[in-house]
Design a protein that fits this description.
The chain is α+β, with helices and mostly antiparallel strands and 413 residues long. 35% of the residues lie in helices and 21% in strands. It contains 14 helices and 16 strands. It has an eight-stranded mixed beta sheet, with helices on both faces. The chain has a five-stranded mixed beta sheet with strand order 13-12-14-15-16, with helices on both faces. It is elongated and about 95 Å long. It binds histidyl-adenosine monophosphate. Histidyl-adenosine monophosphate binds next to strand 6, strand 10, strand 11 and helix 11.
Length: 413
């Protein structure tokens, strides 16, 4: 035997009930997002490396160490998409969507790639369900996006959910705040972990994320961005909160909320689930008012979120998934009758019935067992004396003409 080849580390196959559960998740999402005006978008699996370097941010873990980047010849550098927001904004610009009525509301379900250390709930190829609403800074867009996400998670039955909410303000407020935070970190440098110390200039906000006890102590007295917001940003945040209150969405304001992407401005949020282990982030998102301009488009605002498909499924009870029903199983007593059986199965499918045919050369007894296993509603057996049609519900069996099988079953299905 040749050497066995396995799926790459951090990847997985989707089979059986898991595949059915994913289908249901997509149906739930579509049923909630499309009536709210979100249209499906698909973007390529890889993009110019510059899109993520600029869009997601040079200082982020994603860009620094998690991207699958490859040279594509003639000096072109491409990267397997690590996230969906920058690609959707790229598509918005490329298709002139700023000329459409705003905001443009898009949803996606695709796979993404990050070279992270694999563990439960963290993979190197994973799926995200996401939405982006581009072209309006109305706080109602933020609130609506969060309400839709919360509805999807609730419909799936996700357990132990917690929604944390914050606001980052505008880049100007953030820059000013950042200077104050860096000064605070510098003043307490000797108590910080080496990792935080090394990144004081690069990404001081990440210090709020640290588990290191000394760092946590220093952060307990750190200035908070929420206290530094200007009047307009504060009003925007108050309006988002008021609408969430009105919609009955429960959240906690967490001024230390940090997300691993640089493009966020104003509203920021994350759903976690305590039904998950260390990788508790189910979904996250926020507003990104500067991103479209940053990657070469007009100055238009945007807001959105993405939810990890595997994590949503891990946090939810398995849905009652039933295999698709079988209307008609076509069996035959001897190989010479296979062509007739084949024709009936094909005709039945064309007429809209879920029909199956014996495909593995089983004995007639084996075929009937197979029909039983599939829970077929009817079985048609091609035999010596014509076609015997059995109603598996009533047990009734009769000899019929092959051409009339469909007529016989139609009424009952
Ligand atoms: P993100 O927080 O990086 O945000 O990812 C969103 C979700 O994807 C996470 O909450 C998690 O459920 C899932 N996820 C991330 N990495 C992995 C992984 N390695 N394995 C399994 N699941 C993972 C974004 O990607 C932003 N684009 C969200 C956004 C959209 N913001 C605005 N619009």
């Amino acid at each position: 035997m040749s050497e066995k080849i396995q799926a790459p580390r951090g990847t997985f196959d989707v089979l059986g009930d898991d595949a059915l559960a994913r289908d249901r998740l997509v149906e739930v999402a579509r049923g909630i997002l499309e009536p709210a005006g979100y249209a499906r978008i698909e973007t390529p699996a890889f993009e110019s490396t510059a899109l993520f370097a600029r869009g997601v941010g040079e200082s982020t873990d994603i860009v620094q160490k998690e991207m699958y980047t490859f040279e594509a010849g003639e000096g072109e550098s491409l990267t397997l998409r690590p996230e969906g927001t920058a690609p959707v904004c790229r598509a918005y610009i490329e298709h002139g969507m700023h000329k459409l009525p705003q905001p443009v509301k898009l949803w996606y379900l695709s796979s993404y790639f990050r070279r992270e250390r694999p563990q439960k709930g963290r993979y190197r190829q994973f799926w995200q369900l996401g939405i982006e609403a581009i072209g309006s800074d109305d706080p109602a867009v933020d609130a609506e996006a969060i309400v839709l996400l919360s509805e999807i998670l609730e419909t799936l039955g996700a357990r132990g959910l917690r929604l944390r909410l914050s606001s980052l303000g505008t880049p100007a407020t953030r820059a000013e705040y950042r200077d104050r935070l860096v000064a605070h970190l510098r003043a307490n440098e000797d108590r910080l972990s080496q990792e935080v110390r090394d990144r004081i200039e690069l990404n001081p906000l990440r210090a709020f994320d640290a588990d290191h006890p000394g760092t946590r102590e220093v952060m307990a007295s750190a200035p908070l961005l929420l206290d530094a917001l200007d009047e307009e940003d504060l009003t925007h945040f108050e309006q988002v909160k008021a609408m969430l209150d009105g919609a009955g969405v429960v959240y906690e304001v967490d001024p230390t909320l940090v997300r691993g992407l640089d493009y966020y401005t104003r509203t920021l949020f994350e759903f976690t689930s305590d039904a998950l282990g260390a990788q508790s982030g189910v979904a996250g998102g926020g507003r990104y008012d500067g991103l479209v301009e940053l990657i070469g488009g007009p100055a238009v605002p945007g807001v959105g979120w993405a939810a990890g498909v595997e994590r949503m499924l891990l946090a939810s009870p398995p849905p009652p998934v039933a295999p698709p029903p079988v209307d008609l199983y076509v069996a035959y007593a001897k190989p010479e009758l296979r062509a007739d059986a084949f024709k009936l199965a094909a005709d039945a499918r064309r007429a809209g019935h879920a029909a199956r045919l014996e495909l593995a050369g089983r004995s007639l007894k084996g075929q009937l067992k197979q029909a039983d296993r599939m829970d077929a509603r009817y079985v048609a057996i091609f035999g010596e004396e014509g076609v015997s049609l059995k109603d598996m519900e009533s047990g009734e069996q009769k000899i019929v003409e092959a051409e009339t099988v469909m007529h016989h079953i139609r009424g009952a299905l």
